[in-house]
Specification:
The complex is a heterodimer of chains A (391) and B (289). In chain A, 44% of the residues lie in helices and 16% in strands. By secondary structure, chain A is α/β, with parallel strands linked by helices. The radius of gyration of chain A is 22 Å and the shape is globular. Classes of the chains: A alpha/beta (391), B mainly alpha (289).
Chain lengths: 391, 289
């Protein structure tokens, strides 16, 4: 059956090549986005979509790729559900014939999709989900690339910030009671052990817990001088409120989950001074791409300014990811999945991107374009995100 | 540490009691209840959020609209999910009230969204610090309002003529009906009151817990446990059980671990069910042989 199919396909290709009428080069080159664009994490999916779309507009304005083929974004909703994620992954590749696919916020979905990209030989660009083994999946060749954070690096970064920048010696850990919290518990314990620092306690909380003061009190009584927190926005807000309630002015260092929702709205002034990790900040001085991106966000999506950008890391990561894919397609001279994958791993020209200058972004062993050298620490101040010096 | 846990526990506990009172009110009138009582808590918070934050109305008109809306919600639940089965003495209201709750919750998700939103209150701006403990004034308001409402409900049932009528319906619907009590109306009134109490709990909680479409589920479940522990027939028993449950939760979370909280809490429920199936302060039902 497969043989017959490929024979038919070969005939079709031969026919289309021999036809003198409109060159197939004019057909659009499709890029997929498989992310949560509905539900509680819809903001992240929307942010990623904006980053890709603005990059695509820039590329199309310069005449597209492969001799005039315009790029076109095809979006499918994974609903945060791994099974749905696998279904839409197949649909995007097999029916929509996309050249590459972007992924969304959920580590669980991204992990479930890893085998699909390898089976269908389609490059995948992670724009949010930080699970360490999404990109470090042990496959050879590896079709998964990522312009985003990675839990393992993030944990090292948070550890360093707490110990070196804040000069604290007794960290207490406060983690959400989920697979994501678990993955960070492993990472944080590993990096604390490497520094021969003993934590004073590990506390957990469930989603929708109303009050975090018992956990904080236990860390306080154990003598913690800094709290490293892994939480999403709603629970992170409850932690900050409880911290104010028990009158404990302990410094807090957080993973980036609290930036994916309405943390500032939920906490008001109480969030002042809470530090957390980002890959990019639209506040402060912007490079050329940053200025162009802010303008495009304003013109196309009515974003008034940096404080108005929802889930900013999604837009920043996806924007650079899309340009990297475009460079790889250009270098490969083809939209074939295997060739684009090879090109991504061996991009020759350095790319001066939004987040940094990638030279090169990926190698055969490193599929995370960003490492902890590229992360920035930011802090809430009056509802705004302000970068802090970390070195 | 202890003072902190006690304050937190009392605030949580009085809120459980307040919601549990809603089960009591419909139970004594009709021997039915809204199993999705937690959804009414959420609906109260969401409607108040819509008026106060969404439309920018002042607090008092927002509260008035919220309470009226929730009274209507209670009546709707009774008409749609209870009344058809109440007439035929079928226990299908168990499932139909849960179904209504799920519909209401998903409607809230569609209209309000799945994100938690902040509900501003002057009473959660600054915590009051006393010794090593701190609390928000709002957390003190909850027990105060809770106790006042219990007293009000007790007064209504024992001292007012209409309250006595409602109770009479439960004791003997046929006799009550013969005495000129309009039974369907009495049951509707009980459901409206029950939903209004839940709405009060929702509005009081909103500044502390934030407003979310899913906020009511676990509160409703724990409040049901509280109602059973306290005794469905006994309003004072329910309040005592609510406070006790809140304190146990808070102390277990503080001294053992947060993971043990639900385990200990619900284990106690089972224990009470075995030892005193009629509830802590409920009276042992007399059986005529």
């Amino acid at each position: 059956m497969r043989y017959v199919c490929s024979l038919l396909l070969a005939c079709a290709v031969a026919l289309s090549l021999s036809a003198a009428s409109p060159a197939p080069a004019a057909s659009p080159l499709k890029i997929g986005l498989a992310a949560a664009v509905s539900g509680g994490s819809a903001a992240s999916g929307e942010a990623i979509k904006r980053g890709i779309q603005i990059a695509i507009d820039e590329i199309n304005a310069k005449g597209g790729l492969l001799g005039g083929r315009k790029l076109e974004l095809v979006i499918r909703d994974d609903e945060g559900n791994p099974a749905k994620g696998v279904t839409i992954a197949r649909e995007l590749v097999e029916r929509e014939k996309v050249a590459a696919v972007f992924g969304g916020l959920h580590t669980t979905v991204a992990l479930a999709q890893v085998p699909v990209w390898h089976e269908l030989k389609t490059p995948y660009m992670g724009a949010w989900a930080a699970g360490t083994n999404i990109a470090q999946n042990g496959k050879k060749p590896n079709y998964v690339f990522r312009v985003s954070a990675n839990d393992d690096y993030a944990d090292r970064y948070l550890t360093r910030y707490a110990l070196d920048t804040l000069k604290k010696t007794k960290p207490g850990l406060l983690l959400e009671n989920t697979a994501w919290g678990q993955s960070n518990e492993v990472g944080l314990l590993k990096w604390l052990a490497e520094r021969k620092v003993k934590h004073v306690g590990i506390e957990k909380f469930n989603w929708n817990d109303p009050d975090m003061s018992p956990q904080l009190l236990r860390l306080k009584n154990a003598g913690a001088d800094v709290v490293i927190m892994v939480a999403n926005a709603p629970e992170g807000a409850q932690v900050v409120k409880s911290r104010a309630k028990i009158g404990w002015a302990v410094p807090m260092v957080a993973h980036w989950g609290i930036s994916g929702g309405r943390f500032a709205e939920l906490t008001g002034d109480l969030s002042d001074g809470v530090a957390f990790l980002q890959t990019y900040s639209f506040f402060g001085k912007q490079n050329e791409r940053g200025q162009a991106l802010l303008k495009a966000l304003k013109d196309k999506y009515g974003v008034k300014g940096p404080e108005d950008i929802i889930a900013p890391v999604g837009t920043a990561n996806a924007y650079d990811g899309m340009h990297l894919i475009a460079l790889a397609v250009a270098q490969a001279g083809s939209a074939d999945g295997a060739k684009v994958r090879d090109a991504l791993e061996s991009l020759q020209a350095p790319y001066a991107g939004l987040i940094k200058t990638y030279k090169p972004p990926f190698t055969a062993d490193q599929h995370d374009a960003l490492t902890d050298d590229d992360y920035i620490m930011v802090v809430w101040k009056g509802g705004k995100i302000v970068p802090v010096a970390t070195k | 540490m202890l003072v902190q846990l006690l304050v937190t526990g009392l605030a949580l506990g009085s809120m459980y009691g307040l919601v549990a009172l809603g089960y009591h009110i419909t139970w004594v009138t009709s021997r039915t209840m809204n199993f999705a009582q937690g959804t009414a808590v959420m609906a109260g918070a969401v409607v108040a959020y819509g008026c106060h934050v969404g439309l920018g109305w002042p607090l008092l008109p927002s509260l008035a609209v919220t309470l009226a809306a929730l009274a209507a919600y209670g009546i709707a639940i009774e008409r749609i999910a209870v009344y058809p089965f109440f007439r035929t003495a079928s226990p299908a209201w168990l499932l139909s009230t849960i179904a209504c709750g799920i519909i209401a919750e998903n409607t809230a998700m569609l209209l309000f969204g799945k994100d938690a939103r902040a509900f501003p209150s002057a009473l959660t701006q600054q915590p009051i610090l006393v010794g090593g403990a701190g609390f928000y004034p709002q957390e003190l308001l909850i027990p105060v309002v809770g106790l006042c409402l219990v007293a009000g409900v007790q007064y209504f049932y024992h001292r007012t003529s209409y309250g006595k009528q409602l109770k009479a319906v439960a004791w003997n619907a046929e006799a009550a009906s013969l005495m000129g009590i309009h039974i369907p109306r009495a049951v509707m009134a009980a459901y409206a009151l029950s939903a209004v109490l839940a709405a009060v709990a929702g509005v009081l909680l909103a500044p502390i817990l934030n407003v979310a479409a899913t906020m009511g589920t676990i509160i409703g479940l724990k409040a049901f446990a509280v109602a059973i522990i306290g005794g469905l027939e006994s309003a004072p028993g329910i309040i005592v059980a609510g406070l006790a449950y809140g304190l146990v939760e808070s102390l277990v979370a503080g001294y053992l671990s947060t993971g043990a909280r639900e385990i200990v809490g619900f284990a106690l429920v089972i224990l009470v069910l075995i030892i005193r199936p009629w509830g802590l302060l409920g009276s042992r039902p007399t059986r005529r042989v």
